[in-house]
Amino acid sequence: MRLAQLPGGGARALASSGAMHALINCRAIDAYASDAAGDAAAAAAASAVHAAAARRAEREREYGVVAGADGIYSIASYDGDLDAFDLPRDPADVAAAAAAAAASPIAPLPLPRARHHAVLVPVLRLAGTLVNALADSPETRAQGVAFVAAHHRVIDRILADRASSAHLADLAELEAAVTLCARLVTRRVPAGAATGVGADGATTRERAAVVETLTPKLDDLTSRLCEGDGKYDAFVAAASPEGSPSACTSSSVVTRRVAIATRGARAAVGGLSPAAAAAAAARMERSLRAVRAALVSTQLSLAEQGRATFAALPPPNAAASAFCDDRRPTLSLFTRLTARCAEETREETEARARLLRGLASDG
């Protein structure tokens, strides 16, 4: 990755060495083409809480329970690890703790998924870096399209972003995949692609077809991520500290209230401590902004090329098709996004001004 980012031809040297061919044939990333990494982490976290509660119950039956003067229960004559006994005792409370753990955006991935994620994200980033650095190279672009065609199932799963809760692993995969796919979509297809005329013939038509399948997926993703009330926005709004720019906009205030009312205060922040939740929210917000910027830039490029048109308003049945994959961005969507970005910029500017005034007053 660092070699590809070096100035002075690092990406070209890496591409000339056959790096893209190796990435095209990397079958290790084709595993887990149906379920998201975040869902796997959520299931593992919930199972861990229930397993810990079961171990505690077993130890209680074996050693007995002693109630202290302060009302805290302990395990009599047990000198093992007591971390599991910090859980609530009521089954409903255990279920709530499991739900909160499952909603954590930093819940550890199961070992097989962690290994897959550790390979998938660097491969996508390297492919995206080469395609973006060598954007004027027809050969590299063709290899990028071949990469997407070879691994379309896992890329389709990433772009669908169907995990039930926000997770940083899903967002990292999404950012890497969007960076790659956006460049391939916005590059004009050669004139001979539509008719198959040229050196590539049928291969050119196949490449053009692969690129065309990416456009509706990016349209749907743009519609969902730019609404401002998705799972990532909900976590950022709920986990950002009070008084921070991310928690002070009108949109974030509403999103925060809805998230807490829907999931509960603890589950809305994934059961994390305020400091851990704030750190995760900051990371998530940075990545989410990068993905949104890439998607909006892609839509702008397609519109400038005459390959995309936008309706002023969503269709009347848009609410009924909220879970369909054929949604398209509209002018009203971009207008609302612009208003939110302007408000966020204003809040961040005011926060920095307050900080500078405080530093100036301190001498």
Q: Which regions contain 5 or more consecutive residues with pLDDT less than 50?
A: 66-73, 75-85, 191-199
β-strand amount: under 5%
Structural class: mainly alpha
| Average pLDDT over all residues | 84
The outline comes out as: globular
* Count of strand segments: 2
Q: What is the alpha-carbon Rg in Å?
A: 24 Å
String of helices and strands: HHHHEEHHHHHHHHHHHH
End-to-end separation: 43 Å
Biggest sheet record: 2 strands, antiparallel
The count of helical stretches stands at 16
**Level of helix content?**
55-70%
Q: In which order are the strands of the major sheet placed?
A: 1-2
Question: How is this fold's topology laid out?
Answer:
Layout: H1 2-5, H2 10-16, H3 19-24, H4 37-63, E1 65-67, E2 73-75, H5 91-102, H6 111-133, H7 138-150, H8 152-160, H9 168-186, H10 202-225, H11 231-239, H12 245-248, H13 250-263, H14 265-268, H15 274-304, H16 331-361
Antiparallel strand pairs: 1-2
Can you walk me through this structure?
About 8% of the residues have low confidence. It contains 16 helices and 2 strands. Strand 1 and strand 2 form a beta hairpin. 65% of the residues lie in helices and 2% in strands.
The gist of it:
By secondary structure, the protein is mostly helical.
Q: Notable features of this structure?
A:
363 residues; 65% helix; mainly alpha; two-stranded antiparallel sheet; single chain; 2 strands; 2% strand
